[in-house]
Inverse folding.
């Protein structure tokens, strides 16, 4: 086989579809932990909390990283315009990891093993680009803690910023 | 319980299975946005575009981070040798998030809510190590934008490099 | 619509639920590759190997990034207290991506295409915060290589640390 399989599908004129390059010096790593009280199964939006952290960190251009320190709650970036989307996302996860599916691990309650599966499928770490001190989220993207247990829990999310300082900061 | 559960499974001779350590100074954060035109549901390979960005950034040793600014398209690293793999990956996602499953959120079309679920399951952010200016992908790994809507869309992917400069750059 | 949808759900008193900010200078990027021998389908814990790398790297405050260079094995952070959890996680993945589901791509064995789907759903890259030289994992979190092929394989995991030096290092 000559060349990588991707070659044939490559857009030859890549410069036309790539924006100008922005270069920054990595000056800071800033960290804090956000504690989120959930109300049982469902999605808790934390976009504004993350934005507040990025502002408090004096961030300029860089990367915001999030990590949730749990095995039955996860981090999800999804639409925050219509609350029905989160309802359906929860229903989808319930179908993919139903309670009462004959799980071996059932000593912590019928909702525990499904919560582990949902966490595995949706993930505990993600990052968001930061541009001129603002999260570079898409128009419809919000950041959520997804609680997969039935009862309310206190969940810790570690927020870290790596990048340059905000101009004037 | 004494010790972490992982202890028993630990390979005692870890030095034998870990490569030498490479140390670099973080000198650069470089960012650009790639705009990808999709043709409706399916996988669009962007490996070469990402490689071009890493080269243009003057990257040496470091980390390449990708983020897609959408809620109905995602980023996937998968086999790029046999195109049938992507066909099957799409079929698998269709089974996990079928259209017509009684979604509450249906105002944007029958393909919209399944697209949100597929995006949640596959993710909007990932990173790839960079070694001596090249992506440290495995032999069979390619980077894809997975379009989950039925019609063509324009999708923005933010590419960021954090790391050292290429020797001679 | 005035304001972002998240506004209404914002905790007004965010300072009360965010820990103090810790600031570090990014001084190091340290990289090494861990080679993991799997025994066929199942989860191999690598938490201690990652901890050993972070110690050897002289890490202080920063970020540990992991990347697996394969398309049929993935990285998962999940409970490491009760081994039954991993058994159930494997069973859940088998239900989501069954062998014999009429996959087009079957030239590499009946377990190959299900392994690609499971890898797509669980992911090949993640990060973990590092605080004062230690992984900031939750109490029950362990780091695993999830092998999705039936037979034993040798899997490469690239470990990278970005951050400050350990005090005294």
């Amino acid at each position: 086989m000559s060349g990588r399989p991707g070659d044939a599908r490559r857009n030859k004129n890549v410069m036309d579809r790539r924006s100008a390059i922005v270069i920054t010096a990595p000056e800071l790593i800033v960290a804090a932990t956000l504690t989120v009280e959930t109300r049982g199964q469902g999605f808790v939006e934390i976009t504004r909390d993350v934005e507040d952290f990025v502002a408090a960190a004096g961030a300029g251009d860089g990367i915001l990283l999030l990590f949730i320190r749990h095995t039955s709650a996860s981090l999800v970036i999804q639409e925050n315009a219509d609350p029905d989307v989160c309802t359906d996302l929860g229903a989808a996860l319930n179908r993919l990891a139903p309670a009462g599916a004959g799980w071996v691990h059932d000593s912590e309650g019928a909702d525990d093993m499904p919560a582990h599966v949902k966490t595995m499928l949706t993930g505990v770490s993600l990052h968001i680009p930061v541009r001129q001190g603002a999260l570079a989220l898409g128009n419809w993207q919000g950041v959520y803690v997804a609680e997969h247990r039935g009862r309310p829990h206190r969940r810790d999310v570690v927020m870290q910023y790596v990048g340059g300082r905000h101009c004037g900061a």
Summary: Confidence is low (pLDDT under 50) at residues 1-15 of chain C.
